Each structure stands twice: as C-alpha cells, then as structure tokens.
Amino acid sequence: MSKMPTVKDVAERAGVSVGTVSRVLAGEAAVKPSLREKVNEAIVALGYRPNVTARALRTRRTDVIGLIVPDITNPFFAQLAASVERAAQDYRHSLMLASSHDDREAEQDHVVAFLDRSVRGIIAIASSDNPDLQLKSPIPIISLDRRFGAFPLVSTNHAQAAALIASHLFELGHRRIAYVAGPPDTEAGRARRKGFVTRMKQLSDEVELEVFFGKFDYESGEKIARDLLSRSPQDRPTAIAAASDQQAIGALRAARDLNVDVPRELSVTGFDDILLANLVVPRLTTVRQPTDTLARRAVELLFSQSSDIGDEMIDGSLIKRVSTGPAPQ
Amino acid sequence: MSKMPTVKDVAERAGVSVGTVSRVLAGEAAVKPSLREKVNEAIVALGYRPNVTARALRTRRTDVIGLIVPDITNPFFAQLAASVERAAQDYRHSLMLASSHDDREAEQDHVVAFLDRSVRGIIAIASSDNPDLQLKSPIPIISLDRRFGAFPLVSTNHAQAAALIASHLFELGHRRIAYVAGPPDTEAGRARRKGFVTRMKQLSDEVELEVFFGKFDYESGEKIARDLLSRSPQDRPTAIAAASDQQAIGALRAARDLNVDVPRELSVTGFDDILLANLVVPRLTTVRQPTDTLARRAVELLFSQSSDIGDEMIDGSLIKRVSTGPAPQ
DNA sequence: CTGAAAGCGCTTACAG
DNA sequence: CTGAAAGCGCTTACAG
C-alpha cells in the first residue's frame, strides 16, 4: 500500500504551505479563495484524509464520545445506546462503548481508559449510586438515566412518570396494590417508588400498598410476583406495578405459570416502554421514557460550553395497553 | 488542572533519558534492573500515564477495535456486541461501536471512519450481502455472523444448526411444515433455509414444506404466521420453523391472537437463543448460537498474524423447550 | 492573508 | 545497555 498523503503532499501539489492547507481544512475564512480552491483540488486529487491521531495530539481532543452502560444486553440500555450513537453522529462523533457489568471498579477503569484516549466527553449510565466518587476530569461527564458519581444527570422525571401509573391504576379501581421497586441504591429506583407511593397516598389513604425491592431484571419481577400470586385470591393484590418493563414481563410470566389471568384477575404495569413491551402477551401498559430526547440532551450538554450544567428531567408518558383493566370485584 | 506528566518528566525524575523510559514502558528486557526500578518509581510518584495518542501517531496503531452492527437494539446483536467487548477487553482493547441501520452506505462510511481513527482491526456484522464491495484496508477486517464484503467470516454453522431443528420437528411427527426464512440477500438467511430444507428432504419426501421469506424481525414472523394460521385447520402447518427467535416470537404472538394453542396445535421454533427465548410464553425451542465463542474467535483472528485467514464455522446446539410438541393428529 | 517554525508526546533506528 | 536525535502529521502562535 502506498503511503497515505499528508498535509505536506497536499501543500506541495497546491503550491502553498502546510499552514495554509491546515487553514482550509479548518474552514477558516481567512484564506484567499484562489488558494483555497487549489488546496481543495489537491485534496481530492490525492484522496487526502486528515490524520485524526496527529490532529488529536496537537489539539488534545478527539471526535469520539465515550459511553458507559451497565449492560448492553439490557434492552433499555441498548435503546439508549442506539440513541446516543445517533446523537453523536449528528455531531460527527464516533462512539466508544464500555460495559461495567454493574461493577463500580470496572466503571471507573473505563472512565480512566476513556480519559487516556482523550475522548471529547463521557456519558455514563451508572450501575448504582456512588456519591463519594471523587473524579477529576478535564472533559465533561454527564450521567444518563442513572446518576454517575455527582455528575449532572439527564433522565426521565421518574417520579412524575411513576405517578402516572399510580393514577391509572387508581382510576381502574385498584385498591390492593403491590409495587415492585428497583434497587434502593439507585436514584432511579428510589424516585420511581417515591413518585408512585406519594401519588397513591395522595389519591386515597384507603389503598393497601405493599412495596417489594428487587433488581431491575426479569428474574426479580418473576420471583416477587410468584410469591405474591401464590397467596389466596382474596389476599393477593389486584395490580402489580413494576419499576421496569423487565420486571413486569417477569411478573407476566409468573401470572401465566400460575394461571392468573391478566388483566381480568390481575393488572400489571411496567416502566421504560422497551420494544418488547408491545410484543409480550398481553401487551404491557407502561410509561415511555423518551430515549431519543434523553440521549440527544446528554450529548448536547457534552458540547455546551456552559460551566454550570444542572440536572435535567424530561417527562415520561403513559402508554395504555392491555395488561391493565378494571379491578376484579 | 496541572499538566499531565510526560515521559520527559519521568526521565528527569529518574535521571535517565526518555528513550530508557520508553523502553521500560514497552517492557523490554534490555534495561538494567536498577534503572528500570528508578523509572518505575518515578512513574508512580508522578502518576504518569502514557499518552496513547502520541503513541498511536508514532506506531500507527491504537488499542481499539471497531465493531459495526446493523442495529444494537436487536437482542442478538446486543449479545454479540457484549461478547466482542469482553473479548476485546482480554486483549486490553477498547471497543468503538457503530450502527449501520441496515444501510450499506453507512456501513462503508463507518469503515472509513474507523480507518481514519486507525483502529487495530474491524469486526463487521453486515446488513446484507455485498460481494462487490472493494475495500482496501491496511488493517484486518473480519465478518461476524453475516458476511461483510468478501472478508473472512466467523459464524455459526447455520446449515448444521438449522438441520438440528428439522430433525427435531420430524421426530415429533410433523409432516406439514412452514419455514419462515430470513432475507435471501444474506448468507445467513440462505444457509439456514438450505440446511433446514435439505435435511427435511433427506428425512422424507412426504413432508409438505412451504417456505416464506421475511426479514429477521418480529413483524415478519407475526405477519407470515398470521396468514398461515388463518387458513382452515386442516390446511395449515402443524409446525412453523423460523430463521430467527424474533420471527418465532412474532409467530407465537400471532398464534396467541388467533387462539391457536402452542404446542398442542402448533409447534414453533426459533434460531439464536436470545435471552428472551427463555422468557416468552411458551418458552421457545431454538438453536443456540455460541456468541461468546464466535466473538472470541473473531477478535483472535484480528490479532493473528497469519495472512491466510479462512472462514470459520462453529456448531450450534438444539435447545429443546416447550414451544414444540408432538404433531396433532 | 500567508509562510516558516515550533511543538504536541511518544518510539525507534543509530551510535557508542 | 543507554543517550541523543529524528520524526510520526498535524495546528497555531509569530512575523511579515
């Protein structure tokens, strides 16, 4: 393979200095049009492509964004990652992806690795709260969905969204309800639970509300629902509200296995609106997180020069499907 | 922020030349132990971390691998991506992720972008066949799961795996079978169909086998199954074998909507064994693709110096669950 | 507006 | 085994 052409080759061919080549590359106005044209011709003639590594060494920045997710296999994070990649593209940036596998140490190692590679900014979906995290970073770091360290967070308004579900269930007449919460060591888990419980209490103090804690995954939902549904019919809840679609889908499976009809005998709700929510049987009533908006905002903040970036919350919206119905008598 | 220390700072503090620092960094044996020690002390004292960009500029290689997927939101690709990331980690490499959204042009743009960033190697899951793709690359490119251009492919032995399903269905007594194929413009789609059909013909020429073509997604499976199941019971197949789990899950949903009992009235099989396959109702009989092995092999090949890299196929394995049963009378 | 030159932080022949 | 020096391909003050 013949060597790639450099600014020097372009300069020679165009009969200008490398400085001038660099200036037209940068799109600087201050270049005489005739020279600019010659340079551009030389660029296409040679098939010149800037060496981004050399550029990065000089400018100390690259056109890549680092994204840390707990687990790309989780459909919600996959959706978020897809949205972040699209948003990054809009800024002509590439995406570096790292999975923490819910391991804090791995999370921090990935930050360091990203810093070493001088990424332009880091977006992190944290595995769990870690307010003590002390991390000096020369580049912006934004938390997405779940707060990383003490960095500014872009997320759905979890409390508001969870309250939507509470109202929906209440209106359907449910008065014996189980809430399957997310891990209490995540802000998202706490905010959703609080939003749900608060709204429910507000609506009436007659509601029997039980709260159970699990992880955000299928298994937690299935297990908790299984326990609940093996109670005698008059003792069990008429609705299970879960803190994630995955938990809700687990609950649906448990109901199926135990021959509990959804939604006739039991209503089930999720949170996230992953693709799957609309595919399971019965289709899941849930709350939609605006992943595209969240992702776009996160990368916008990365590029905003502003020094006082605060948290941003975006409202979720109720998606009524068929896993919820009137409370049984 | 105080400036990051460089080799020069380390050299000064250790009382050696930068060349020597670089040599101990490279782990070269040819450094006097006493000096090596001094250098190492200086490194920790200063908290020195090599500038990977400068290193990349000199050596023309980075420690990142580029991965191109059609859509990270597809659970099978997400699993594959997770496996690739893990394998890359084992080689201390980071992962750059790009989605092609089934767009060939985007696919090629991503390759170019990766090349610009001098990644160490590229792993590509192609959106569709493109044997005419002419692409000069100074770095290794490996196709994973679906062939990209004419680059060597690491994949499951699609034909063998599909034959496993054919045998399973035949043994259960099914003689009226519909095969929902993947896109004929993908090697994977063709190989699976061929493997299935060939084995079935081999088993008996009494089997009524209909083949339908779709995409690999939920919608295709649902639509095709819906058409099939709206026929009169004696005209419809007793088994639907799909070329992907997503298609099969779509088929399951159609069966549910049309009140066709699986597996009593209809057997359904998938392909991939995504996490979801074990979560749907009823749990899906499918064939497992060894994603970890596939991914590991692909990155191994990236690092293998060998110049004659050929295709590699890895066998799949039948996972019997409850979406298949004896053919109805 | 443009050129000549320094310098980003490394690695690696080249001498010795 | 080690040091001095060149050079990877850019960008950007500095002069003019």
From TrEMBL, chains A, B:
UniProt keyword Transcription present: yes
Keyword annotations of the record? DNA-binding, Repressor, Transcription, Transcription regulation
Q: Which InterPro entries match?
A: HTH_LacI (IPR000843), LacI/GalR-like_sensor (IPR046335), Lambda_DNA-bd_dom_sf (IPR010982), Peripla_BP_I (IPR028082)
Matching entries from PROSITE patterns are given as: HTH_LACI_1, HTH_LACI_2
Give one GO molecular function term. Answer: DNA binding
In this chain the HTH lacI-type domain maps to 5-59
Name the SUPFAM superfamilies for this protein. Answer: lambda repressor-like DNA-binding domains, Periplasmic binding protein-like I
Q: Kindly give the PANTHER family that the UniProt entry links to this protein.
A: HTH-TYPE TRANSCRIPTIONAL REPRESSOR PURR-RELATED (PTHR30146:SF148), LACI-RELATED TRANSCRIPTIONAL REPRESSOR (PTHR30146)
Entry protein name? LacI family DNA-binding transcriptional regulator
Q: Which organism is it from?
A: Roseibium salinum
